[in-house]
Amino acid sequence: MTDVLARMGLVRMSARDTGAAHRVSTPLELLFDLVFVVAVSQASQNLHHLISEDHVGQGVLAYLMVFFAIWWAWMNFTWFASAFDTDDWLYRVLTIVQMGGVLVLAAGVHDAMVEFDFLVVTWGYVIMRLAMVAQWLRAAASDPESRSTALRMALGVAVVQVLWVARIYLLDDVAQFWTFFVLVVLELLVPVWGEAPGRTAWHPHHIAERYGLFTLLLLGESLLASANAIIDALGEGEHVPELVTLAISGIVVTAGIWWVYFSREQQHRLEGRKSAFRFGYLHYVIFAAVGAVSAGVEVEIDEITGHTEIPHAIAGLALTLPIAIVVAGSWVVLLRASLSRWASAAVLAGAVLIALAGLLPSGEYVVAAALLVGVVVVLEVDRVRREATPVH
Fold first, then answer.
1. Which of the given ranges, 13-17, 192-196, 239-243, has the highest pLDDT on average?
2. CATH number of 204-388
3. Dihedrals φ, ψ of 142, to 5°?
4. CA dihedral over 5, 6, 11, 13, signed as positive or negative
């Protein structure tokens, strides 16, 4: 078998060493992430436009629905790659097929969010997921120890994809809307059922790094939005002080989110099956909120320049709520176990105050940025105190 694979230029796909040293992201994984950022950018831009046009409820709901497809496909590939990455030509081809699916999905984001027409998004998603079915079948054929889990994953993913396609072609618009959430639940249950015989051999440090890198790419969207504020200020020659202040606040917010997210080591939260599921699934909230921050900055630009007629509070909350959710989500997923009680209380209080800052009559982005700096200070003071406390 090994000789046959070698003649074909392939490597036997077997579970990797979960304790291997120096396990880092591959160039292919980094390229994969960049393609996903295209889809996230489309979702963020459409969220911005829908909020500015006073379709807030539709914009938020559609964004969360589209973001699920983006996040779930990314997450499933990431955990599979951590366990079975062979980096041979077949693995690369199937990964590139998934990238193509991402681009198809990105092309359908506008119709999905504006008209709730999920046809193109569904096909892009199904392309990505069926490529994963092929990867799981290859793992089942190559690795006897992982065969039961791999076959379950392949079967579960394949069945749900059939249901996604059937939903589009057989149901009316109302039924399509409600069955979306039913199929989301089924998607979330597939890994739980699939790994019942035994978990796949993902690498804790590698997974933590992959999640961190994706967070950085999402933060890049916020930096781009801040740059847009400066470009608009220089280009139009109007509202310069307000736009420059917003841009500076946006940079501070981006740096603050980065500081909060990376303030503690994360791989030790991935040592058990339950903790790994909690880490992986709850990141949907963090990722979606980080992706929405850039939309909030763009909405604030529209509000400052008079390109929207939405109430000032809506524009403010469009920015401050995602920031607050990132802080609270990071506390739940990443920080809670490593903080003292006073620090935890201060971080959560900071998240609430950041959210409420959106209701201020003016300067909400400055206040939100300042409060986020305060959260960072709390985390660093708590770190220093803990390191200075003798361990008995």
1. 192-196
2. 1.20.1410
3. -100, -30
4. positive
Q: Per-residue DSSP letters for 302-354?
A: HHHHT---S-HHHHHHHHHHHHHHHHHHHIIIIIGGGS-HHHHHHHHHHHHHH
Distance CA 380, CA 386 (A): 10
Q: Residues 6 or more apart from 298 whose CB is under 8 A from it?
A: 45, 48, 52, 225, 228
Give the mean pLDDT of 376-385: 95
Q: How many helices (H) and strands (E) does the chain have?
A: 14, 0
Boundaries of every domain in the chain: 2-11+26-194, 204-388
Q: How far apart are CA 289 and CA 27, in angstroms?
A: 26
pLDDT one-digit tens code per residue, 114-152: 999 999 999 999 999 999 999 999 999 998 999 999 999
Amino acid at 199: R
CB 43 within 8 A of CB 291: yes
The b/e string for 9-19 (b: 16+ C-beta within 10 A; e otherwise) is ebbebebbebe
CA–CA separation, 79 and 280 (whole Å): 9
Whole-angstrom Cα distance, residue 210 to residue 188? 20
- Helix, strand, coil shares of the chain, percent, nearest 5, are 80, 0, 20
- 200 — pLDDT class (breaks 50, 70, 90): confident
Res. 15: pLDDT tops 70? yes
Q: Are 109 and 118 in contact (CB under 8 A)?
A: no
How far is it, in rounded angstroms, from Cα 371 to Cα 270? 30
Q: How far is CA 384 from CA 161, 167, 331, 339, 377, in A?
A: 49, 54, 18, 11, 11
**DSSP of 174-217, one letter per residue?**
HHHHHHHHHHHHHHHHHHHHHTTT------HHHHHHHHHHHHHH
Tell me which residue has tokens 């489309």: 42
In this structure, of 97-101, 146-150, 263-267, 362-366, the range with the lowest mean pLDDT score is 263-267
User: Which one, of 267, 246, 150, lies nearest residue 198 by Cα?
Assistant: 150
Give the pLDDT score at 176: 95
* pTM for the full predicted model: 0.94
263 phi/psi in degrees, rounded to 5:
-75, -20
